[in-house]
Structures are given as structure tokens and as C-alpha cells.
Design a protein that fits this description.
The chain is low in regular secondary structure. Helices cover about 10% and strands about 10% of the residues. Bound molecules: calcium ion (3 copies).
């Protein structure tokens, strides 16, 4: 019965082609792992913008600090000026 319901649900929504990306560190930005589904599974988000999905402090727009890592996903490690301010 449940299998039949699932089948019907799938047949009635033929364009369930949305990609959802696993947000492992729960910062709102997904990593590279993706699944196809009609609605976002728990823990998945609609973007794949996280450059380090194992660190919840590293995401686009995050605070860059002098630590040898690209904390704000700008593509540049420690892009800080002489006063310690972010340059990008
Ligand atoms: Ca993330
Ligand atoms: Ca950066
Ligand atoms: Ca850094």
C-alpha cells in the first residue's frame, strides 16, 4: 500500500528534479554532495556554496581571520589588510 502511494506521488509530480546539497556543518551552505528530490531532505539546502562543509564558521560572507584558511569562501586565504580587515 505504501509502495503504491509512493509510486502515485512520484507519477503525479514528474518534474521532481531539484538538487539538494548536504549541509554537513549546518551553517546554511551546502557542500558538494547532492541528491535529487521534490523537497529538501533534512540537513540539505538548495545551494552548494560552502567551501568547507566541515567547519560551521567557514561559509560565503563568513569572518576572515588570520588562520591559514579561506574562512569566507572568497577563494583567497587570509585576505586581510595590514589592520586585519577583510579586503574582499
Ligand atoms: Ca555547510
Ligand atoms: Ca577569504
Ligand atoms: Ca583565514
Amino acid at each position: 500500500m505504501f509502495a503504491l502511494l509512493a509510486l502515485l506521488a512520484c507519477a503525479s509530480t514528474p518534474d521532481c528534479q531539484d538538487l539538494w546539497y548536504l549541509d554537513f556543518d549546518d551553517d546554511g551552505y551546502g557542500g558538494e554532495m547532492a541528491v535529487e528530490a521534490c523537497v529538501a531532505p533534512a540537513g540539505f539546502v538548495a545551494n552548494d556554496l560552502d567551501c568547507d562543509d566541515t567547519d560551521s564558521l567557514t561559509f560565503p560572507g563568513g569572518d576572515e581571520v588570520d588562520n591559514g584558511l579561506d574562512d569566507d569562501c572568497s577563494g583567497i586565504v587570509d585576505d586581510l589588510d595590514w589592520s586585519g580587515k577583510q579586503t574582499t
